[in-house]
Amino acid sequence: MTVRSDPGSVEWLALGTLATVWLAASFGAAASAHIDRVGQMALLAMGAVVALGRGGLGRPHRWLLVVASIMIAAGAAADRRWVPVEREPYVGEVVLSTDPRGGWPVVWAEGTLADGRRVEVRGTAEVASALESASAGDRLRIDADLAPIDDTAHHRSRHLVGRASINTLHQRLGPAGWRRPVEWVRQVVVDGAPIHDEAAAALYLGLVVGDDRAQDVVQRSRFRAAGLTHLLAVSGQNVAFVLAAVSPVIRRLGRRSRLGAVALVLIVFAVVTRLEPSVLRATWTAAVATWALLTGRASTGVTTVSAAVSLVLLVDPSLRLSLGFRLSVAATLGILVLGPLCLARLRGPSWLRAAVAVTVSAQLGVLPLLDRTFGPVPLASLPANVLAGPAAGAVMTWGMTVGPLLGLFGPAPAIRRLAELPVRLALRWLDGVAAFSADLPLPGIDVPALLVAGGLWGLISLVVGPRGRRPLLVIVAVASAVAIVRAPTPPPPWIELTPGAELVRLTDGDDDLTVLVLDRPAMVDLVDALVSRQTGHIDLLIALHGGRATRDVVAAVRGVAANPLVLAPAQHRIPGAVRIQAPVVLGDGPTGLLMQPAAGDRLEVVVTGRSAHVITEGWGKLPDD
Question: Which among 281, 334, 395, 555 is placed 20 to 30 Å from 593, CA to CA?
Fold first, then answer.
């Protein structure tokens, strides 16, 4: 059968879908540093089969081989272009590409040097405070030391070739050229955040523009444990709300003007949200879909996403290494491919079926990536996303309509407080859902077992007849429910939560004590571990150091666990902590703990049961402060 180029032809639609899917998949493979010439030729041969497979190379498909050749050549050379910097001093200008993150004593951001090299800009001590107040687009005149950066997938995906440690920040200048109006738009959106509640404002900015820097570590960890972090990363949902907000104006334009207006809105939105990988995927997909709609081209969702992914990777091959980009693509394809299947098998009100189908299909799409990168995905993420979805959509809609108007015109405080009431209620609901879901004692999902169960389910559906199918499927469903979830195991008496943080469970008389020992841990990793393990009760917190950094970590832990008794060195800066000025022994069971003052104004702790030094007597009481 000859392939017709008529956009309404079924053959064209099927071939177009297959071709664009192949195009995206082949480029993902071709961009790898490990593919050889034989693999590249095999991919080109696959493209020829796809294009010629239905009776001839039709005119609409000739571009496939050309684009595929360019993409394979670009992908094969992508990794060779990454060359780390040499150690050398640098005096000159750097333009920040991202907003600074972190806090005292270290603040960092990404920036571009005058010669075009992209580096991680890092400031400590006094420089940290000045760098923290800057934003993306600002130009900094610095005196810094350049050093090569680790060769990781993340650094390659961000084009980071070095680290610039600032010695002196001479001058800070605002954005120049086209970035000025874009930054003004962003500031209007930021000014629309609730002004009477810092926690609500931080969550609002994360949902609307993907800026989660102001979120405290406890709230951020609860969103991660509940599987709701994707709400704080701008994606296709945000793009859809933006286009919906401007659609009344765009509809009044002609077809060509409409396409240009949509392109302008998408570009401004992408820059306002800092050109994150998930944003690039979403905006390119929206652009391809708009082009197909306005030009009358037949297209399916999978075709649109595949074409958008191909175009994005053609522009920036290194994005294939970005976890955020891959998660965004996987979630979108999960919704497009699995969503209709889930929807057809659910029962109940249409709005509930749609919400559950989208949530389940998106989660299934990203499960393999999440499991491989972060470990078991919490089962609580499924109900959490269903409960949080409508509220998140309401906040995003408000943030694209009412919020900017409040930020632009600045009404009286009483009027603004009244106008903010709906969004504050939605934000409080989201925060409550995250906290509740993070505390649910549900196990994680075993992805390999889930894949095996899905394969068995499909095999039975295809091979077994209708009579024997139902009992077998019931057996597989029950067995899958048992195998897929990972039941929690009893906690061991001692465990290293994160490097620098140990959790010890011991018996002291009639009391069972949970003790957290801190030795310069990373705050975010520690709070994540406490939330994911649902360690909501800590009796004692022993800080081996008493400085400012430890004080901040203790404050974060207090926000997660019930207020524990804090033990610290004699010279500490931790409010309410008890000073340890003499040796103290706790525990009369198989696990014990000795703490005593050590050199350099710190504490030394020995845990029996994993140390050669076993304490058998001399158990004492806590000294008075």
Answer: 555
